[in-house]
Specification:
The chain has helices at 2-8, 12-25, 30-42, 46-59, 64-77, 80-93, 98-110, 114-127, 132-147, 151-164, 169-181, 185-214, 221-227. It is mainly alpha-helical and 228 residues long. It has a domain at 1-94: Serine Threonine Protein Phosphatase 5, Tetratricopeptide repeat. Helix 3 runs parallel beside helix 5, helix 5 (64-77) packs parallel to helix 7 and helix 8 (114-127) runs antiparallel to helix 9 (132-147). The two termini are 24 Å apart. GO terms for molecular function: mRNA binding; single-stranded RNA binding. Pfam families: TPR_8.
Length: 228
């Protein structure tokens, strides 16, 4: 956690020091290897990042997340074919891990393989259509259809994504952007207003909860703390 904080503050040397301390203290800590590897990848150090993610995978051979990030690294800095091999391995390790299928689908979309991307997105949704990952999958699929010119399909997918997670700013604004691009400025503004409206309703709900807690008998402070 300390290493992540230093990374966010762009204290890269200090972050590396604490990442190293983390893996020395817990050599099988998949989270530490993963975050350090992604950190180095984002800094443009693919060789070092590859080494870190590979070590993480060696000491955690049943973890699909490390292979998924390694696949994305290979796609970014090497070739899609090398990435596909890693995505296939990750999907076999845990076929129910939705992010692997979604990331693989995103890569195929970027490669222009729309049919394959749709197939992979559908596979992810077949695992669980009501999860947070499903919402992200539907949003990504909506972007695919938007770029392909299938606007009705894109709108349905954005709507489906919001049915799963109505709090996604990215999905609301992506849908609004689609309408702007089509010259539907009024509809785009309606969509933005819907987002801010439902955000306001959540704030109102939170205020009601706080009001409810204020009228609880002060003598039972322990219950108030529990509710907090």
């Amino acid at each position: 956690a300390w290493a992540q904080l230093e990374a966010q503050l762009e204290n890269h040397r200090v972050a590396r020091f604490y990442f190293q301390k983390a893996v020395q203290a817990s050599p099988k800590n998949r989270f530490a290897w993963h975050v350090w590897g992604v950190f180095e990848s984002n800094l443009g150090n693919p060789d070092f990042a590859r080494k870190l993610l590979t070590i993480g995978h060696i000491v955690n051979p049943r973890d699909p997340v490390l292979l998924q990030s390694l696949a994305l690294l290979e796609f970014r800095y090497s070739t899609a074919n090398r990435a596909r091999v890693l995505f296939q391995k990750a999907s076999k390790l845990d076929p129910t891990h939705q992010p692997v299928w979604i990331a693989w689908g995103w890569m195929e979309w970027k490669e222009g393989n729309l049919g394959k991307a749709r197939e992979l997105y559908q596979k992810a949704l077949s695992i669980n259509a009501a999860s947070e990952s499903a919402a992200r999958c539907l949003q990504a699929w909506g972007v695919l259809e938007q770029r392909a010119g299938n606007l009705s399909a894109a709108r349905r997918l954005f709507r489906s994504s919001l049915n799963v997670n109505s709090q996604s700013y990215v999905t609301w604004m992506t849908w609004a952007s689609l309408e702007d691009d089509q010259g539907n400025a009024i509809r785009a503004e309606e969509i933005r207003n819907l987002y801010f409206q439902q955000r306001t309703e959540i704030v109102d709900d939170a205020s009601w909860i706080m009001g409810f807690m204020d009228i609880i008998d002060p003598a039972i402070d322990s219950i108030k703390k529990l509710l907090n």
